[in-house]
Write a structure and sequence with these properties.
alpha+beta, about 40% strand, globular, about 130 residues
Length: about 130
């Protein structure tokens, strides 16, 4: 994972993370689950999450040779769904009543982006310096 910070003052504003997806059955390499959060509510809705996901998305496809990226969010989280759409993730399905929050069951929504879609112009790609 990495911490997002504002360039203006170096203040930490959130986190973005990824991890390999492990499935039962046949080995499925090069699939990553991605996620993130902008901490201070007053900084949400300003494009910071969209930019962070762009950087992470491009890094995973370029440097980690990812085949597929997956993300899940609660069905009530419109901001997260907008961020995923802006990064060309496709809504693939709903896990009904998959998370319990404060005693109430909520649906989770699964999104994914494939390498071939990214290569065919998902969004502008960023260059990464090699070590």
């Amino acid at each position: 994972s990495f911490i997002m910070e504002l360039r203006a003052d170096g203040r930490a504003i959130g986190e973005c993370s990824w991890m390999p997806v492990e499935r039962t059955g046949p080995f499925s390499p090069d699939i990553y689950q991605v996620g993130g959060i902008i901490g201070p509510e007053d900084l949400r809705g300003h494009g910071f999450g969209t930019e962070a996901l762009q950087i992470l998305r491009d890094y995973l496809f370029r440097e980690r040779e990812a085949h597929r990226l997956e993300a899940m969010t609660s069905a009530f989280n419109g901001g997260a769904m907008k961020t995923l759409h802006r990064n060309s993730f496709v809504r693939e399905g709903v896990l009904r009543e998959a998370v319990l929050i404060d005693g109430v069951w909520h649906d989770r929504v699964l999104f994914a982006l494939l390498r071939q879609d990214w290569e065919n112009g998902a969004l502008p790609q960023r260059e990464f310096p090699h070590d």
